């Protein structure tokens, strides 16, 4: 069934996020968001429930399927790493195919509150996962 591993970092002491395969802005994206507090990584599995918001999978009836969660914060940079299954079976996660291409969005915020507005954002396309 396999999984894929990610490592994200940003120049912030707040949260960092990756959104996989959004349909419109944030809507439909499989989000993985994380921050580091007192040396501990807090990483959440969320879903883009509208073009401008997201909610934890667990609040929508899904599961937190993120594995191998870790993170660090040093010199004003937050870094998180994690693994996600290629197919978790959760309706709020994307099914990822080896060799597939996916639009991804990135963002980070200045606080440890996942609902705070992002400071910066970007998008990219992952070719041949």
From TrEMBL:
Superkingdom, taxonomy of origin: Bacteria
Gene3D superfamilies: Cellobiose dehydrogenase, cytochrome domain
InterPro entries xrefs: DBH-like, DOH_DOMON, DOMON_domain
Biological-process GO terms, alphabetical: dopamine catabolic process; norepinephrine biosynthetic process; octopamine biosynthetic process
Positions of the DOMON domain: 1-109
GO CC, any one term: secretory granule membrane
Region (Disordered): 48-74
Recorded GO MF terms: dopamine beta-monooxygenase activity
Pfam families per record: DOMON
Name of this chain's protein: DOMON domain-containing protein
